[in-house]
Please model this.
Amino acid sequence: MTIKLGLVGVGKIARDQHLPAIAADPAFELVAVASRNARVDGVDNFHDVAAMLAARPDIQAVSICTPPQGRDAIARHVLESGRHVMLEKPPGATLTEVHDLEDLARASGLTLMTTWHSRHAVAVEPAREWLSSRRITRAHINWREDVRRWHPGQDWVWEPGGLGVFDPGINALSIATHILPSALVLQEATLNVPANRQSPVAAELRFDSAGTAVTASFDWLQTGPQTWDIEVETETGSLTLRDGGATLLLDGENVPMPKNEEYPSLYARFAELVAARALDVDVAPLRLAADAFLRGHRVLVDEFHW
Ligand code: NAP
Model:
């Protein structure tokens, strides 16, 4: 049975990934969107989620693609209207928001999915399997991209709750928390915050994972080639994930992978969850980001201007 879907927040990620993935998935039919300034051809268009759900009682599930600040109220309205919810990453601006949504979804018998698209990168599951039987001796995350390329003009990323460089960095944390056999516990963080902004443009992090040091280096000003790498040394060989989890090297040798299809895989998972009225809520990556904001040293650096 096709799931009639609404989408909220038609911005960069909705257009780049969600709309094509939904269009290609026979499990879903996009019937409406809600966005204050954008429209999508061929479906009903509304200014806000309340108007959309009131006008289209046939909508069964809603995909929320707005920035994290304010997503909570949208998701709450959708659940209270009896519809299933899929949340873009990060699932909220605070941990409590997400816990409360989980309680509401559970009490209502509705699906809530906190998506972590990078976990659906094609090499992530093989990496998790390879590491599951090994002892790790060191791991390092190197996540460097160009904010002007991936978030052009998006001031919300610099506001409280926008996470700054943790907006991409949380993708690395979502992979690390999935593939490393032991939980990560933050030990130390340094956050470089532009003097005219609220959120960091770079960060250095050190975690403990069952006695092993795991380090991370995030930077949002890297132009030219972009770096989304995780390197793991074990007692019996090394593993490298490159390209955000699309490429796998074992002991330096490339392991051939099928096509990388993160968002089609996310929607396939959402369809399964809706069919089972099940929840998939994981806040581990957001918790580590929150710990870095709680525990980190702040260093003021040059102002950031687009
Ligand atoms: P975006 O381009 O700014 O789009 C978000 C859309 O949400 C806006 O266009 C806006 O559309 C709507 N919106 C509703 N309330 C808003 C508010 N208070 N401030 C700003 N926009 C508001 O952002 P995006 O890049 O698509 O990111 C959205 C989410 O997807 C974020 O959580 C981000 O982490 C995640 N994501 C982004 C990327 C990426 O490469 N950019 C990749 C993966 C995941 P209207 O003005 O029409 O309402």
Summary: The longest helix spans residues 262-276. The chain has a mean pLDDT of 98.
